[in-house]
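[recover] target loaded
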């Protein structure tokens, strides 16, 4: 239940950061008090307990429709002013009537509000946006951690060095030598090779490297020590028995921090609450509890951390701010980065299904859904194969950069621009409590890139190196002040770099060749004319070579 309350708090903060107007900002204030979130969690907990435990059906909780209540909410939203300075929750002119028995239900008022426009827009904002999708995904991961590849064992043994045969060692050395010949490090950079390990039972074991440039004397040595201390890697050049970190703690079953991780913060807040209550001995119990609740809310908001991620949207880059104060290690933070990247690129990526006209694509999707429900389970791979073919994209997440950027208004949106890579927040920003990262200042090494393609693999990275190194915005998200002459809004974070997905491209070519071959075989069987069949195949190949690039560039031009 407590974890559900934490997820509700993150859901509220995400809604508040994305609310487009004042009406929706007022509506989400219902989730601000902790008492309201506790009531919601208790209601969900009771609903789940009352459900049959042996049943695997989804628990249904449908709120009954009430025209009188909907009309009251619509009146309340209509009374909210559009000005951001107004506070309708405290103004008696727009205060809602919470007692439905005392509210008037005249027919004239009902006829005056034929369509509940504001209520429907607010409801759509609550249930159809990215905040609810994130809440559902995180709650599902918390309930079913094993499904995501996170295995729990009663006792975790200390991490042991990976044992490899001589043949495997020579194979690794040969592949590393060939890769260095094909793609050597940039001038001035040194390639640090390591074996990615993890404290979970299924260690990653991949042979990785980081290209780093030393910025100060002894910086490379301190960088290698941090790699080992944070449990990221066994260095290839060193002896595993000497450099392997011992006694690594296993990852938590869920990605939320336990209660003990914020004991100091809770202790400070409790002391503040006691002193505050002593200064007001004549206040009522209700006022005291309300002040304590408000103080705890402010304390929680002061501990928030936001990772600023710049994602390419083909037409314009977009800034995503991930609230990462609840993440315990790199694994779940990088998974969240991958989910945000997929959600952003879902609206601006080319797929193989775009080769077909929209009515034809819709017909095939419905046909595959129908077949998936009717065919036997042993043949379920057929609709899944066609579904994966329709979702083939030409780009994928590759690496990342540490960047400095400026928020620039473009029409109605605010996008990151003037991006400069390999920069961290200055030490003054950290001392002012605006950003957090380690080490401060970043004068040891400069990394050529962040291996996001490797870190986003689920269930294998329980170290804390990257979550400590990423610069995080503290207390509140990065916002740009309105006005032409406002001061420039500067932010620091990471940028996601994309790469051409050669595997998907070659697979698409193979599918086209196979389809042309099948058509040629059918035509040859029907006509028994070899020359005509091969001529038809040549024509289809030439038409495909023109049609596929045409569809891609037409989509790209329309997107831009």
């Amino acid at each position: 239940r407590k974890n559900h309350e934490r997820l509700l708090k993150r859901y509220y903060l995400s809604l508040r950061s994305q609310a487009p107007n004042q009406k929706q900002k007022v509506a989400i204030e219902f989730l601000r008090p902790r008492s309201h979130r506790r009531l919601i969690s208790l209601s969900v907990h009771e609903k789940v307990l009352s459900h049959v435990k042996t049943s695997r059906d989804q628990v249904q909780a449908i709120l009954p429709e009430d025209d009188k209540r909907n009309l009251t909410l619509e009146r309340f939203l209509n009374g909210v002013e559009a000005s951001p300075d107004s506070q309708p929750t405290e103004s008696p002119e727009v205060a809602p009537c919470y007692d439905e028995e005392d509210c008037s239900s005249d027919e004239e008022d009902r006829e005056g509000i034929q369509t509940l426009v504001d209520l429907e827009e607010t409801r759509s904002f609550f249930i159809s946006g990215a905040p609810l999708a994130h809440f559902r995904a995180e709650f599902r991961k918390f309930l079913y951690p094993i499904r995501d590849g996170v295995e729990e064992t009663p006792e975790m043994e200390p991490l042991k060095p990976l044992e490899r045969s001589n043949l495997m060692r020579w194979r690794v050395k040969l592949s590393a030598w060939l890769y260095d010949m094909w793609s050597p490090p940039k001038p001035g950079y040194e390639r640090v090779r390591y074996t990615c390990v993890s404290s979970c039972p299924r260690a990653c074991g991949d042979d990785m490297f980081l290209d780093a440039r030393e910025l100060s004397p002894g910086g490379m040595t301190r960088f290698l020590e941090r790699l080992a201390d944070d449990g990221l890697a066994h260095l290839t050049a060193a002896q595993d028995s000497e450099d392997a970190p011992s006694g690594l703690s296993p990852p938590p079953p869920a990605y939320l921090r336990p209660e003990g991780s914020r004991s100091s913060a809770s202790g400070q807040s409790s002391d503040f609450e006691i002193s505050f209550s002593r200064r007001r001995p004549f206040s009522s119990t209700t006022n005291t509890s309300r002040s304590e609740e408000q103080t705890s809310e402010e304390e929680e908001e002061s501990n928030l951390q936001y990772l600023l991620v710049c994602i390419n949207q083909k037409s314009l880059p977009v800034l995503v701010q991930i609230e990462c104060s609840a993440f315990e290690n790199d694994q779940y933070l990088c998974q969240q980065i991958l989910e945000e990247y997929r959600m952003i690129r879902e609206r601006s990526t080319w797929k193989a299904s775009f080769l077909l006209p929209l009515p034809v694509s819709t017909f095939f999707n419905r046909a595959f859904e129908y077949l998936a429900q009717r065919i036997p389970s042993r043949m379920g791979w057929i609709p899944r194969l066609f579904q994966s073919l329709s979702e083939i994209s030409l780009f994928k997440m590759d690496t990342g950069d540490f960047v400095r950027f400026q928020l620039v208004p473009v029409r109605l949106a605010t996008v990151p621009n003037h991006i400069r890579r390999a920069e961290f927040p200055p030490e003054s920003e950290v001392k002012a409590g605006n950003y957090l990262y380690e080490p401060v200042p970043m004068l040891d090494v400069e990394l050529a890139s962040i291996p996001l393609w490797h870190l986003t693999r689920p269930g294998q990275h329980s170290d804390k190196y990257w979550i400590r190194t990423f610069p995080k915005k503290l207390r509140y998200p990065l916002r740009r002040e309105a006005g032409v002459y406002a001061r420039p809004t500067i932010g620091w974070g990471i940028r996601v770099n994309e790469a051409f997905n050669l595997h998907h491209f070659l697979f698409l070519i193979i599918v086209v060749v196979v389809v042309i071959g099948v058509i040629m075989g059918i035509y040859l069987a029907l006509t028994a004319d070899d020359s005509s069949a091969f001529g038809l195949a040549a024509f289809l190949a030439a038409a495909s070579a023109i049609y596929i690039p045409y569809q891609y560039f037409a989509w790209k031009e329309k997107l831009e």
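[recover] notes: Residues 166-250+306-351+392-500 form one domain.
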